[in-house]
Amino acid sequence: QVQLVESGGGLVQTGESLRLSCAFSGDISDYYAIGWFRQAPGKEREGVACISTVDGSTFYADSVKGRFTISVGNTKNTVYLQMNNLTPEDTAVYYCAVVLKGYQGDTLLVVTGRVGYEYDYWGQGTQVTVSS
Q1: What is the 3-state secondary structure (H, E, C) of the chain?
Q2: How far apart are CA 95 and CA 106, in angstroms?
Q3: Contact 20/126 with Cβ under 8 angstroms?
Q4: Which residues pair with 22 in a beta bridge?
Q5: Which of 93, 66, 86, 75 is nearest to 27 (CA)?
Q6: Tens place of pLDDT for every residue, the chain, 132 residues?
């Protein structure tokens, strides 16, 4: 059982920044990817960013590209989401999640990390509210 705890959410004004943290249990080498998702009231969950622990590659939704940065902390048990130039459209509950590595024989199964159904464990979320 992997535990994930998000923190760093809050209320900010348009143009300001926040850094979200996701502290997770276990060994990062057991995970294929770690991602951030968000869900605004009345809207579907949206993939925001993810980072592959296999090769360090990252993915960003078009809506956050150039403003958000995902990174792994030095302790390897925390993932950050740096959010700059926030707008009211970024208001949502933000969740982090992990994809466990899966194998078929000796072959590592590849996932995109971009869709929620690929993820195995989720945190409880942290609220981000951006006022205009």
Answers
A1: CCCEEEECCEEEECCCCEEEEEEECCCHHHEEEEEEEEECCCCCCEEEEEEECCCCCEEECCCCCCCEEEEECCCCCEEEEEECCCCHHHCEEEEEEEEECCEECCEECCCCCCCHHHCCEECCCEEEEEEC
A2: 31
A3: yes
A4: 6, 79
A5: 75
A6: 899 999 999 999 999 999 999 999 999 999 999 999 999 999 999 999 999 999 999 999 999 999 999 999 988 899 999 999 999 999 999 999 999 998 999 999 888 889 999 999 999 999 999 999
**Which amino acid is located at 16 in the chain?**
E
Whose tokens are 């143009």? That residue is 15
Q: What are phi and psi of 98, to 5 degrees?
A: -125, 150
